[in-house]
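User: Some background: our group keeps a shared notebook of sequences we're curious about, and every so often someone picks one and asks for a predicted structure to add to the entry. Today it's my turn. The entry only has the sequence so far, pasted here. Could you supply the structure so I can complete it?
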Amino acid sequence: MARGAGGLLDGGFVFKLGRLFRTPYGGEGVDFIDQLNYQFTGGLILIFIIIISLRQYVGKPIQCWVPPEFTRAWEEYTENYCWVSNTYFLLPHEDIPAEELEYEKIKFIGYYQWMSIVLAGQAMMSWVPHLLWRVCSRRLPLLLKSAKEASIPDRELRLKAVSCLVATLEEQAESQSRFRRMKSFVNRCLCGIAPNARLTVLFLFVRALFIANCLGQIYLMKCFTGFNSTFFGLQLLQDLTKGEEWDTSGHFPRVTYCNIKVRVMGQPKPARLVSFNKHYSILKNDSYSCSTLQKILFM
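Assistant: Of course. Here's the predicted structure to add to the notebook entry:
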């Protein structure tokens, strides 16, 4: 497993991954803003997905501190159970809930397990506007390429480029002429936008999709992580500048609490697996406490 993980991060893989940012995917008609929206953003998210997936599926995403009477099988069961179930976080001054009804007021953390999947969805969403642009403007790269080749010194290649450019422009003019011959307003509405304006409308629509994608992903992350404010990024930066750690702010905690049930002498026995300062103790209701360390990278 370790050797496989090392192979993923060797020099050749890093070099190939760097080409994702150097090579302008999309051909003609793509500017830097387009690349920033779909290529650079998607590539950066892909790097985060690889790092998080290595931690989740190759390493150990969670580590529990268990009482001495817990066997190795119990410890593995505890870690697997706490990873697939939602854990919760308590501030240092908050007490551990003693009643089942009190857990309804607790804010559970369920985003660590799904982070790589959500990031993959965000990466695909960042490519949707660009793919729409490439599908709906198929002839634009041909026009731009023909226009460039029309100015090269090679006479034979220049004539081919000019002929291709003229044929494309003639077809565009014929489409515009057919649209103008439609006297009925209803027919024009059914046939859509005028051919000479379609590319402009498509360009503006794709730019609007890029903006909507950025705003929508910010709102998606707000709902996914459970922050109260849409400007949670600024809130995290303020915490960093003030030196406020996760144990006091509760933002992306690395130590969380988990409840499980174990069987003792054939009877189900509730066990509360919690963490605080790396100590465990036996509670009044014969529940055990341990620390659940979230060891997953989140960006």
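Suggested note for the entry: Residues 61-109+246-299 form one domain. The beta strands are 62-64, 87-88, 108-109, 255-256, 258-264, 267-273, 292-294.
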